[in-house]
């Protein structure tokens, strides 16, 4: 055989390995879920590539995942007959981390094991989790379509506590796919048990579409122990979870499936599962995660919905399936109408996809609405979590999704003068339900920070009259409001703009007083205007202040001052 070549891990891999072993030790069981998940992905990829190139099956088209253990050698082996890896792929995929958000991830680590364990989970654990339980990992792989002689052996042993390098070597591998052997660390012997491994598979990988097989076991009366037979049996349910009926799926199964498709280690916040029949036929199983991914603001970040056609995996990251402002959603859409050879280009034009997208959007907005309005214990908190994690992204929908603008607007939450705290808990509907007798507008103030908004002199008259005002201080708020002239028939009005016509909220005596004051101080106003010159449009007497002597106001038809400030800062 060819001699082995030694290569160095990318620095981030070394760091991740070290962290993982130390922080995730108490969750060591996840290694099996991660490796089975990779084997399943590899089978999906093969099935998809084989649509065009059936020869890739090499007369072995029953895709499956096999798990074996050997007590005397102290090894566990996870094998699949999926797509496999070439030598270059093994180096690229098992020696580096290609995920977007890697830098942010490493920047957020604290050194506190508990916190970091959580972060690693969010980042995605993956292949390297093998090293939690193993001090040496051997990968044998051959990519589908390559010759048996083009197999690759990848191997990495921990020396002491760390691994800095791995080796690759060309080997013969008759069967296509990947075989990963874990040489267990001291103290991991309990994993060398059929019963233990089977229970882990049922717990974490029951939903995997391909059969996961293990040797049958038999009680040997003489030896007084379980002995392995040559025959294999299927351990998991081995069907696509989303094709089953909702009533037959437990919450735990939904959650386990989420961890697989969402590459997340936490539980989802909520999900929606439904089958659409009629002119278009498709199934959607969509999840809202409990936390934002690292790369939510990365324009090139992957979207999280996988597209299947009649249970055949077509693509990850099908960005056309949901609008950009719902890019945090994870899950699966399985269409019965699209052609199996559908490409990204075809998707761009497809009317079927437009229908699916509209349907998925409606489902997710409905799910969020239900969470927000539900009286069930815990749901209100869930919505608050959702808003904290994804509110900023959802806001984009007000400007981007004309058809659902009102629905999205209904999901927005704001801080207001009612509580006077930065917590964003007030919906526009809440606001309207609390409007004063005679009030017909929704008032808001925008500023660069919550405190600036809260202390705005423009609020004085509103506070005096007990009128609630929304306090907006997110950078995008001005833009959001600009796209939302009204809600439920009530115009949204800035307290910092124009003549501030309080309508029926104004009292006659005050009005008279103001008119008189304007008359009395005419000369003074003229003088001030003259000395301020170009810098102001007008100087007026106002009723809107109770404590402050003066304030700046934007003209009714001009852009808000906060927006003007943002544009100026952006150099416009
Ligand atoms: P992820 O699954 O999120 O991409 P992993 O760390 O789990 O990250 O795996 C890294 C990569 O290694 C995979 O994307 C895949 O390209 C490759 N890989 C891992 N296991 C297998 C396997 N059993 N068959 C083929 N490729 C694999
Ligand atoms: Mg993986």
UniProtKB/TrEMBL annotation:
Coiled coil regions, renumbered to chain: 504-531
Alphabetical list of InterPro entries matching this protein: HATPase_C_sf (IPR036890), HATPase_dom (IPR003594), Heat_shock_protein_90_CS (IPR019805), HSP90_C (IPR037196), Hsp90_fam (IPR001404), Hsp90_N (IPR020575), Ribosomal_Su5_D2-typ_SF (IPR020568)
Subcellular location: Cytoplasm
Binding of ATP, residues: 34, 38, 80, 85, 99-101, 122-127, 178, 344
Chain intervals for the UniProt region annotation (A): 1-344
A GO CC term attached to the entry: cytoplasm
Pfam families hit by this protein: HATPase_c_3, HSP90
CDD domains: HATPase_Hsp90-like
Gene3D superfamilies found in the cross-reference section: 3.30.230.80, 3.40.50.11260, Heat shock protein 90, C-terminal domain, Histidine kinase-like ATPase, C-terminal domain
Domain of life according to the entry: Bacteria
Main subcellular location of this protein, as a coarse class: cytoplasm
Histidine kinase/HSP90-like ATPase domain mapped to chain residues: 27-188
Keywords: ATP-binding, Chaperone, Coiled coil, Cytoplasm, Nucleotide-binding, Stress response
One GO MF term attached to the UniProt entry: ATP hydrolysis activity
Family: Belongs to the heat shock protein 90 family.
Role description: Molecular chaperone. Has ATPase activity.
Record text on subunit structure and interactions: Homodimer.
HAMAP family: HSP90
Protein name in UniProt: Chaperone protein HtpG
Native organism: Azoarcus indigens
């Amino acid at each position: 055989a060819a001699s082995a070549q030694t290569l160095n891990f990318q620095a981030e891999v070394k760091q991740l390995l070290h962290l993982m072993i130390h922080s995730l030790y108490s969750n060591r069981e996840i290694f099996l879920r991660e490796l089975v998940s990779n084997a399943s992905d590899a089978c999906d990829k093969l099935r998809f590539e084989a649509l065009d190139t059936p020869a890739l099956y090499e007369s072995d088209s029953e895709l499956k995942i096999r798990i074996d253990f050997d007590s005397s050698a102290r090894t566990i082996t996870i094998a699949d007959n999926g797509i496999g890896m070439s030598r270059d792929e093994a180096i690229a995929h098992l020696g580096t981390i290609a995920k977007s958000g890697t830098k942010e991830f490493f920047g957020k680590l604290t050194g506190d094991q508990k916190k970091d364990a959580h972060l690693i989970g969010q980042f995605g654990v993956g292949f390297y989790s093998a090293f939690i339980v193993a001090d040496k990992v051997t990968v044998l792989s051959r990519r589908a379509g390559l010759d048996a002689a083009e197999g690759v052996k990848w191997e990495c042993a921990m020396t002491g506590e760390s691994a800095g390098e791995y080796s690759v070597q060309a080997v013969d591998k008759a069967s296509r796919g990947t075989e990963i052997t874990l040489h267990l660390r001291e103290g991991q012997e309990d994993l060398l048990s059929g019963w233990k491994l089977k229970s882990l598979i049922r717990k974490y990988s029951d939903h995997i579409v391909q059969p996961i097989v293990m040797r049958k076991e038999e009680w040997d009366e003489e030896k007084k122990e379980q002995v392995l037979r040559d025959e294999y049996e299927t351990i998991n349910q081995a069907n696509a979870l989303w094709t089953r009926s909702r009533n037959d799926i437990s919450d735990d199964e939904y959650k386990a499936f989420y961890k697989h498709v969402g590459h997340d280690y936490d539980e989802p916040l909520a999900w929606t599962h439904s089958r659409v029949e009629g002119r278009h036929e498709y199934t959607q199983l969509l999840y809202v995660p409990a936390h934002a991914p690292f790369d939510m603001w990365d324009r090139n970040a992957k979207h999280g919905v996988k597209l299947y056609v009649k249970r055949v995996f077509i693509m990850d990251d099908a960005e056309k399936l949901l609008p950009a402002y719902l890019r945090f959603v994870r899950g699966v859409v399985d269409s019965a109408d699209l052609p199996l050879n559908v490409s990204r280009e075809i998707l761009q034009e497809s009317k079927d996809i437009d229908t699916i997208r509209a349907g998925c959007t409606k489902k997710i907005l409905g799910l969020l609405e239900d969470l927000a309005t539900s009286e069930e214990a815990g749901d209100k908190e869930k919505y608050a979590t959702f808003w904290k994690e994804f509110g900023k992204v959802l806001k984009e929908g007000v400007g981007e999704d004309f058809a659902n603008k009102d629905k999205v607007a209904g999901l927005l939450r704001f801080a207001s003068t009612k509580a006077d705290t930065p917590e964003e808990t007030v919906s526009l509907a809440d606001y309207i339900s609390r409007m004063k007798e005679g009030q017909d507008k929704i008032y808001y103030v925008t500023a660069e920070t919550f405190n600036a908004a809260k202390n705005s002199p423009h609020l004085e008259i509103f506070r005096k009259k007990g009128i609630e005002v929304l306090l907006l201080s997110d950078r995008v708020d001005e833009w959001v409001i600009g796209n939302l002239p009204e809600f439920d028939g009530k115009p949204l009005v800035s307290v910092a703009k124009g003549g501030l016509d309080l309508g029926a909220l104004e009292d006659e005596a005050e009005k008279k007083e103001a008119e008189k004051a304007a008359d009395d101080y005419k000369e003074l106003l003229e003088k001030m205007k003259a000395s301020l010159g170009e810098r102001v449009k007008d100087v007026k007497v106002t009723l809107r202040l109770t404590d402050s002597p003066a304030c700046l106001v934007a003209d009714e038809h001009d852009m808000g001052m906060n927006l003007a400030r943002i544009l100026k800062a952006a150099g416009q």
